[in-house]
Amino acid sequence: MQKDIPHFLDWDRFADRDWERVFAEFAEHGHHEFALYDRWCLLLELDPKFPARLKKLHNCGFGKLVGSHGLFGKQYDLLAFDEEFIPFARKLHIRLIEKLAGEFGITTYTMHPLNDFVYHGSVEDAKRHLERTLTPILEVAEKNRVVIAVENGLQYIDRPDVLPELVRHFASPYLGCCCDTGHLNIFAKRTGKDIMECLDMMYNEVVVAHIHDNDGLSDRHWVAGLGEIDWRRFMPKLARAPRLKSMEDEGIYSELPIPEICARTSKLLEYAALPDPPPTR
Description:
- The chain is α/β, with parallel strands linked by helices.
- Helix content is 42%, strand content 12%.
- Strand 4, helix 6 (163-168) and strand 5 form a beta-alpha-beta unit.
């Protein structure tokens, strides 16, 4: 059973000089693991001084970086159709995976199929496009023992009952789904389904989970417990997903004090250790 929940943070809340202090405050409350968000990934590529700075933070003794969310947006998403940008985006993802694995020992890399644009193709179109965009990235991920987690969203092509089909098309142990619980809750509300039923749709392919809460209406990215998800019921099931490698706190917009963030995410681990919930009817 997972002993810590890595945290994504809204680092704009903190002055750059305070990063190590933030790690230290989390450590005071028993939390020592963190995940890189896309901004830090971009800085790894664009700022020559940033890799050394991040490595110093990684080795500061208070915490370490254990997961990552790759670049996302219309230029970087796996189903983006900017033909001129695809080769550059592939190379950028590949370089990041190699750097994250080699310099930080990170073993998971989350990617979006699509984020800020509408997809109009069929599932078969998506498979063909992914063969172009994802195959070279996946080959490098396999060599570096990094598992790529493709995140569920709210369009028909990345919803939880379709995304696993795209993942299984590649038949790779280094490719799976990222279960984004906020997106899952909105999908459940929109379709009138139980969130546990929605989890079942992608359950066997979940390798990473991004845990955050909302009101079922908008992607709020609240810390777990501030929204409508029944975490006592949800966590025991999620924690036993057969391919799961990491559950990560993505409640980045709650602006709670660090002690409360730690208390709420520690409670998730308590729930995860409970017996399985009864089957969804």
